[in-house]
Write a structure and sequence with these properties.
Arc Repressor Mutant, subunit A
Amino acid sequence: MKQTPSATSPAPAEPGPDVGQLADIFHLLGDMSRLKLLLACLEQSWPATELAAHCGVSPQAASHHLRLLKAARLLRAERQGRQIVYTAADEHVRHMLKDMIEHLAEEKAGQP
């Protein structure tokens, strides 16, 4: 006997974002040091040692955080001579963070 879907059956789920992967990325960005490192890389490239100093993070901690951000494809690393230079991975990362910064600025200004 062939079954027909009832009127109360939920519709099949449409493919959507990988919620687990999104949660992992937002968890990474929940660390203030990682967020500072990523924000610094939005507009310019930084050698790892200068980036660590700029963000007030020890070189060892910065190395750990940068490795995680790179693994999540939020940062890109390029070797230039003896240095590794970091920058935001792409425009998607830049837009995501800049949009959130604008959102917070509107909230502070009392705009809905």
